[in-house]
Amino acid sequence: MQEQKTITIDLSKRYVFPQDIRTVRYEDYILVISVDEARWIVLKNEQQVSFFESLRHLTIENALSKYTGEIQDAKEVILQIEAKDLFGKHFVEPVIPNGLHIYLTNKCNMRCPHCYMYAGNELKNELTTEEVLSMLYVYKQKGGLSVTLSGGETTLRSDLFEIVKYGSELGLKITILTNGTLWTDDLIKKISEFVYCVQISIDGYDEEENSKVRGSGSFEKALTTLEKFLDLNVLTTISCTPMYSEDIESKAEEYANFGRKLVEKYHKKKFKISFNTKLEDGRNNIMTDEKLDKYASQMELVNKKFLGEFYEENPMFLSLNRRHILKDNCTYGFLYVAANGDVYACSLITQLSPFANIREKSFEEIMIMANRLHELSNVNNLKPCNQCELKYICGGDCRIKNFEEFKDADLLNYNPEDFKPRQCNIAYKESFYRLMIKYNQRLFE
Predict the structure, then answer these.
(1) pTM value?
(2) Rounded Cα–Cα distance for residues 221 and 43 (Å)
């Protein structure tokens, strides 16, 4: 049973609310949103709205003296204002381009149909060991914190251990993405001393389902690699992204059981598993808007069954608002370096043009360019997002999906005033209204 808290309110208190407060009526509720602080309260009737409006220019005592509604409604308004600190300040977490993702090679031992990198054959002129190490050094000197290494398949780089060891000794937190099928005992043992996290892709709940994506024989190999890293006390995760199909829902319980069994087996070790709700276009996989929506719904069902009472819709929304953080951007402007040295500002590298190549510009200069790209993608530069009551709650969504300009290699020469407005729709906004209502009480408990 949750402990009840008692608060004492000074009736002579007069709230000083932020200037930009907007009211949105959705279904049977009234959302009162403090736009610039990304805070809100949820009112249930017109009496509560009327009382709130009185509090905007009167002390609590004076507002109560003029109030003719139910006293419980007035109490609920005051409780929410106090608990949500509606008149307080949120802060903007510095989401700076402090993430570096290096695709070490395009070579891969698999030909997964949903691979958005179209990995398989090695690219011409892939980065040398010296080029990768130099990039890590500059990145660290300029404040870099974490690095993700992926491919293709990372273990097909013969210098993988040298790269991981060097980056770790610089003080960088190294994460490796892998299909988990080519690791030797020796490489696992050596790398475990220097790597922060290993993420293994397993896209089915058994050999038969996984083989539809990753080929036969890969399921047990990946699970064996998982166990070996866990035995060496390395944070090891499984990322599960099944291929789109019409019958995922009928297999939701099998995916959930797969996850639950692994959690039970490794509950004393550094283990996590995630079932992804997004699937990008890939080698033999084209995702229409209709398919994207259905896939998200199907995988949400998997997550509900897997997590049970611990399931949370849109955990990122909850995480940001629990920590009182404004969302003013996506991760556009982070650094994604392809195996040939091309640098992109987003992980969806097959959908946009590179803005630089590490062989043509210094990495220090590239980091400066990335920071500028991140500044350009701030929600306050986007229309109509910069005028929306949800701008710091939604953050403007994916830049690549909604703004053609952010796919352009010449973006640094754009004036934000020239960005074309995004085509937003009411259904998208309503999805946030529902979250704000659904989790309102939990966010101020």
Answers:
(1) 0.91
(2) 54
